Amino acid sequence: MRILTIYFVSLLLWGFTANSQPSTYKEKYRPQFHFSPPAHWMNDPNGMVYYKGEYHLFYQYYPEGTVWGPMHWGHAISKDLVHWQHLPIALYPDSLGYIFSGSVIVDEHNTSGFQTGTEKPLVAIFTYHNMAGEKAGTNHFQTQGIAYSLDRGRTWKKYHNNPVIKNPGIKDFRDPKVSWHAASNKWIMTMAAGNEIRFYQSANLKDWQLSGTFGNDEGNHGGVWECPDLFEMKIAGTLQTKWVLLVSIGNGAPNGGSGTQYFIGDFNGKTFQNSNTKQTQLWLDYGCDNYAGVTWSNAAGRRLFLGWMSNWQYAQTVPTRTWRSAMTLPREISLRQTADGIRLFSNPVKELEKLRTGNHEINADNKTAYPFSLGELELTVDLEKTGTTDFGIEIFNSKNEKIHVGFNKTTNQYYIDRIKSGDVFFSKVFAAKHTAPRLVRDKKLIMHLFIDHSSVELFADGGSVAMTDIFFPTEKFNSIQLYPKTKNAAFIKGTLYTLTTIWR
Ligand code: FRU
């Protein structure tokens, strides 16, 4: 009897633990080749750093709900930027506040003095958001703190003398991105402060001096500035370099809501000088769902980017149940000279090619619908031979829910139309057609698409235009077809790759 009871109790317990696995990654809308948290709320990517064969991804995380709440840093690692392993939460809120966005660097020469053994310190620099201060109506509730790990990011210790930068009386004072500036032999921090960027310098990551500001009358100011990044890059095919400053804005992006603009210029160790006019607005991605993205630190000569695949306009109401939000695909970014000036190009990292499980050619007659589950599509169009002004690809299901990803010759714009994409009712602004100007003038037009269960990413013309949009079809999209469907329509040829899941 006793043995039987133990047996039943263990069966019960087993059932309980088995069912309470954080997630199966098979839920409705669950992205299959994008990073999303096992459960609960996620926003910005944080602290991306490459160290000893591992790409670290930390992220804004609320482990007790599916809407934004007290922020922690969730954590995952990857060896190939494609498959991810979840690790325990890295940083918890403490008496100084919630842990907002920030960065991680490898302190190669132990400038911080945190190193005790052979392992290099990983140092996280993040924003503390003090709720009590905010509720009391003060304007100094955001400060910058640091924490370090001496075991390859597995465990973290907060610095005892936090905060390392106190608030000078600026309400929005956050999102430090730190990197090593070899020319001045110092750490530099790029941070959002109200409607501008502030630059700081430090020799030890603990003492910081303000060295410059940029941007209060430059670029777009439709919303608060957040999550900057600053890095130097070679202009492809030349020996010349330029500095790129990424700045996310909470509102005012070209297709509404939050988005990421960028500036190209020079940085002298202290401040940034824009090479374009103050009015110039450059956008990293024209879709509605690529926000707060920054690049990996220490990534061996590559400039790798990842963004949060949502928009503050509706992020908290999208119809997923157990988790909310995913990241964009990791992208390799590059600087290229174009007829309009130097521009930032984005392309999916080449490691993603390993997800391909098969491919077939798409017939140019536009008559055939091709079945797919998860797909990557490459389309090449001869613009001169194309007898139609508007063409593209329809992705649909049996309920006639669909999205269109296409190009309009008259307006010279790419677009993603998610007006009839399924559940669009959770936000007034969600059902919309988003557009992006075509940058290059080549006669050959190239669209490269990645289609997951609830997102599409377009990389057009070698990455000169990127568009990222999410969607929620009530039944999975399972067919694609070129349009218009009439004879003699666009001359299009292409390859469709079937992709496999990264979650098993
Ligand atoms: C951007 C942002 C950051 C902030 C974080 C809070 O989405 O607002 O500025 O640090 O989210 O979660």
Name the structural class: mainly beta
Largest sheet entry:
6 strands, antiparallel
Q: How would you describe the shape?
A: globular
CATH fold assignment of the largest domain = Tachylectin-2, Chain A
Provide the CATH architecture of the largest domain: 5 Propeller
Instruction: Note the gap between the termini.
Output: 39 Å
Helix content: under 10%
Q: How large, in whole angstroms, is the Cα Rg?
A: 23 Å
CATH classification class of the largest domain: Mainly Beta
Q: Beta-strand percentage?
A: over 45%
**Number of helices, where a helix is a run of at least 4 consecutive DSSP H or I residues:** 2
Offer a concise description of the structure:
By secondary structure, this protein is mainly β. Helix content is 5%, strand content 45%.
Structure description:
The protein is mainly β and 504 residues long. The protein folds into 2 domains: 2-348, 5 Propeller (Tachylectin-2, Chain A); 350-499, Exo-inulinase, domain 1 (Jelly Rolls, Sandwich). Helices cover 5% and strands 45% of the residues. It has 2 helices and 34 strands. The protein has helices at 2-19, 131-135, and strands at 40-51, 54-62, 72-78, 85-91, 98-106, 122-129, 142-149, 157-158, 173-181, 186-193, 196-202, 209-214, 225-234, 241-249, 259-267, 272-274, 282-283, 291-295, 304-308, 323-324, 331-338, 341-348, 356-362, 370-371, 375-382, 390-396, 402-408, 413-417, 433-437, 444-452, 455-460, 465-470, 479-483, 492-499. It has a 6-stranded antiparallel sheet with strand order 23-34-25-30-31-32, with no helix packed on it. The two termini are 39 Å apart. Residues 1-22 have low confidence and may be disordered. The protein binds beta-D-fructofuranose. The site of beta-D-fructofuranose (FRU) has 12 residues, from strand 1, strand 5, strand 9 and strand 13.
